[in-house]
């Protein structure tokens, strides 16, 4: 691609896509006669190829010409790329929709899920055509293909959609296969507008295709799948979820960020696929829906089959809205704006509500909703930045006032968007609103040869501030389990709430835990600067006082940390220094951690313990990761108390032999595991040194089964010098999730 900025030679990267010029293609592909094909462009030859594809799809192919090759001929005009697929196992189906030819290439194994794909394509074409403009081509081919790049991939007139036919993902609450499939089909179909015909620079301006397209994908889902208010809010929350993590981690991006600037796929996904649609939603709010729709239609009309830039998009904004709004939108798209609206004051005088809100840098009108006993009234707070004062008539039956109720403006921190009309006296507390309160329920089961069967249940609840889990107040956790072998119960109850939790500021938590072993209450202060500062005061049955200070220098590529300085009254105090390095060498990703621990007892003279360890975890096979090699070596001086010794089993085989540790002074070990999709067989061996217990070589083999919602470790063989009897534990880890962050499709 060559434009006024010169040559664009970006290849196909892990993060981001490409930017290419329009061209005509005449492509001839010679391949075995029993192959079905799909491609960009029109199928020109050979004669009768469509009929042959239909025949091939209807049963086993027994033409006498089997083994002979054919040449298929595709012709495509004015496209930025040419793509084709070929497979003898495809099942071909063609449907016509308003003169648009829809070709579907399905596979037999996903037939059940794919029976509605034709409908999804039609719905998506209709939705995008109505919102943006007429479908730009005469045809589209949808292919069932198992690609690794997210949920699907777009090419001109051809899209690949990954089937999500795994039986496990169906059972996850809130993650329906059908819905994911429809979402991906809508998203990839949308790329025929935002990529294929509006051929933007996907590498330097990813917002222009993925950001805008993801906005329409979400709008499609709201219009077709999440019609009711609650479900619609859940849909918007999916976008918010990823962005809020990035927001609280103080890593946000502006919408003109190039793919080269993102350190990893999570940050790219958050900025472009999550924040992008929310920023689009904000632009729509500012312009007003009707004007916005006209603006988008004009954008498509003006720039179709060309290469619009973000600056072109922005200059068109100025033609559709007033200067101040347009100036703000321009800033919204080119700067890293973090909006946080809040109430400053609300006063009720007679029948008038006097409201003062802080709009920060946000200039345009801002949605405000007043919740009355039987109705909700929506207003717009006046234009202008900073503090804005306005009056609304009507106080009878007023319950709440909420800023930005429907997330029409992108804002993560919503804790201060609520004002509640509290009565003067209140005797009983209110029952939590289940829209804002979530309860998680999880089964709990394991077996080990010592404790026998252990079964239990845990419950967890937290008050979400408009689904914002990071602000979650009043979190509690209750769990109980029963050990059948020795009829022994275990229980735990914990409560925690943020007292102050603000981005960029000190975080202050209170936490109380009680169980049959310990009770702890603690107050935690957290402060973020270049590293992390963490101050923790705790008290418990055994612990009188404890101070933990953690410093982690995240500004370095690899981290250096002191973690933690631990002072326990009347006990040993330790300090831990570490250095961590993550590297990639060809197909090997490895992670080396070096650790040095010093500890002194009550006598303040010399260090009573000194120990050091090096751990290396490597995953071989590049992105596929087929082999895992873990190595560990550690040594300490002879005075190490029991709880500071090396957990040899824990270091290497925590899944399998949790609780069955061999406490050693020093030793080394290695583990090799095969990283298959669901089953990970492993072998491990090591050598332990200890002055009193039997030491020497230990080795083991087993397999770890990870079936997404449940994980099971099955040790097959275990031999250790201090153990004559085979001893094992099977642990089921159930992952119950109530939140769905949605799938990211490229
Ligand atoms: Zn995409």
How many β-strand stretches?
39
Give the % helix: 10-25%
Structural class: alpha+beta
What is the overall silhouette?
Answer: globular
Q: Largest beta sheet, briefly?
A: 18 strands, antiparallel, barrel
Q: Nearest-angstrom radius of gyration?
A: 30 Å
Uncertain regions: pLDDT < 50 for 5+ in a row?
165-175, 424-436, 465-469, 649-661, 733-746
Query: What fold name stands as the CATH topology of one domain?
Result: Zincin-like
Rounded average pLDDT: 76
N- and C-termini, Cα separation: 21 Å
What is the CATH class of one domain? Answer: Alpha Beta
CATH architecture tag of one domain: 2-Layer Sandwich
Beta-strand content estimate: 35-45%
Bound compounds: zinc ion
Count the helices. How many?
Answer: 13
Description:
By secondary structure, the protein is of the alpha+beta class. Among the domains are: about 25-200, Zincin-like, CATH 3.30.2010; about 340-420, Immunoglobulins (Immunoglobulin-like), CATH 2.60.40. The protein contains 13 helices and 39 strands. The chain has an 18-stranded antiparallel β-barrel. Strands 8-9-10-12-11 form a five-stranded mixed beta sheet. A hairpin with a 2-residue loop joins strand 21 (about 450-465) and strand 22. Helix 5 (about 175-190) crosses helix 7 (about 210-225) and helix 7 (about 210-225) crosses helix 9 (about 265-285). The longest helix is centred in the middle third of the chain and has 23 residues, at about 265-285. The radius of gyration is 30 Å and the shape is globular. The model is unreliable at about 165-175, about 425-435, about 465-470, about 650-660 and about 735-745 (pLDDT under 50).
């Amino acid at each position: 691609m060559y434009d006024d900025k010169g040559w664009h030679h970006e290849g196909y990267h892990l993060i981001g896509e490409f930017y290419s010029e329009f061209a005509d293609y005449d492509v001839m592909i010679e391949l075995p006669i029993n192959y079905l094909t799909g491609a960009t462009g029109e199928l020109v030859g050979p004669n009768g190829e469509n009929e042959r594809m239909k025949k091939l799809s209807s049963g086993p192919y027994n033409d006498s010409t089997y083994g002979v090759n054919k040449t298929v001929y595709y012709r495509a005009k004015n496209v930025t790329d040419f793509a084709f697929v070929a497979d003898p196992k495809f099942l071909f189906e063609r449907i016509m929709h308003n003169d648009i030819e829809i070709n579907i290439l399905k596979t037999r194994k996903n037939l059940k899920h794919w029976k509605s794909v034709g409908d999804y394509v039609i719905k998506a074409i209709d939705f995008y055509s109505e919102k943006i403009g007429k479908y730009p081509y005469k045809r589209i081919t949808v292919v069932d293909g198992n690609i690794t790049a997210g949920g699907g991939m777009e090419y001109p007139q051809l899209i690949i959609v990954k089937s999500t036919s795994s039986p496990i993902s169906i059972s996850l609450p809130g993650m329906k296969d059908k819905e994911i499939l429809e979402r991906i089909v809508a998203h990839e179909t949308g790329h025929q507008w935002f990529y294929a015909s509006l051929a933007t620079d996907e590498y330097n301006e990813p917002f222009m295709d993925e950001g805008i397209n993801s906005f329409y994908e979400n709008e499609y889902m709201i219009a077709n799948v999440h019609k009711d208010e609650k479900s619609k809010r859940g849909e918007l929350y999916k976008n918010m979820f990823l962005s809020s993590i990035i927001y609280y981690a103080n890593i946000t991006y502006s919408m003109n960020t190039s793919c080269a600037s993102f350190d990893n796929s999570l940050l790219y996904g958050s900025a472009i696929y999550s924040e992008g649609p929310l920023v689009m939603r904000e632009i729509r709010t500012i312009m007003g829906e009707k004007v916005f729709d006209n603006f988008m239609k004009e954008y498509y009309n003006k720039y179709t089959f060309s290469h619009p830039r973000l600056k072109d998009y922005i200059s068109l904004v100025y033609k559709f809205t007033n200067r101040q709004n347009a100036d703000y939108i321009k800033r919204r798209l080119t700067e890293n704006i973090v909006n946080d609206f809040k109430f400053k004051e609300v006063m009720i005088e007679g029948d008038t509500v006097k409201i003062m809100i802080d709009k920060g840098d946000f200039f345009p009108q801002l949605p405000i909703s007043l919740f009355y006993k039987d109705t909700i009234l929506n207003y717009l707070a006046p234009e202008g930045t900073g503090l804005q004062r306005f009056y609304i008539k009507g106080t009878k039956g007023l319950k709440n006032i909420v800023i930005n109720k429907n997330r029409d403006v992108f804002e993560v921190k919503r804790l201060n968007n609520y004002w509640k009309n509290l009565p003067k006296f209140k005797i009983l507390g209110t029952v939590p609103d289940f829209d804002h309160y979530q309860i998680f329920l999880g089964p709990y089961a394991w077996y080990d040869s010592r404790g026998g069967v252990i079964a239990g249940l845990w419950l967890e609840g937290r008050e979400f501030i408009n689904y914002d889990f990071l602000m979650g107040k009043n979190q509690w956790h209750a769990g109980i389990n029963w050990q059948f072998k020795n009829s022994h119960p275990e229980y735990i109850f914990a409560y925690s709430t943020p007292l102050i939790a603000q981005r960029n500021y000190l975080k202050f938590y209170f936490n109380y835990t009680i169980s049959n072993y310990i009770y702890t209450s603690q107050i935690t202060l957290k402060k973020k600067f270049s590293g992390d500062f963490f101050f923790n005061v705790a008290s418990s049955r055994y612990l009188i006082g404890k101070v933990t200070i953690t410093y982690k220098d995240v500004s370095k590529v690899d981290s250096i940390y002191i973690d933690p300085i631990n002072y326990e009254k009347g006990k040993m105090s330790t300090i831990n220094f570490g250095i961590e390095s993550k590297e990639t060498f060809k197909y090997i990703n490895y992670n080396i951690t070096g650790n040095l621990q010093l500890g002194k007892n009550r006598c303040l003279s010399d260090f009573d313990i000194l120990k050091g360890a090096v751990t290396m975890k490597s995953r071989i096979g590049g992105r596929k990761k087929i082999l895992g090699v873990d190595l560990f070596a550690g040594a300490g001086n002879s005075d190490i108390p029991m709880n500071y010794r090396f957990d040899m089993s824990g270091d290497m085989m925590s899944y399998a032999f949790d609780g069955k540790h061999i406490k050693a002074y020093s030793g080394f070990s290695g583990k090799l595991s095969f990283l298959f999709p669901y089953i990970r067989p492993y072998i491990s061996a090591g050598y332990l040194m200890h002055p009193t217990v039997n030491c020497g070589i230990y080795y083991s083999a087993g397999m770890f089964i990870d079936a997404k919602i449940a994980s099971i470790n099955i040790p097959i063989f275990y031999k250790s010098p201090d153990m004559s009897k085979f001893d094992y534990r099977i642990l089921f880890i159930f992952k119950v999730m109530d939140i769905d962050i949605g799938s990211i499709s490229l």
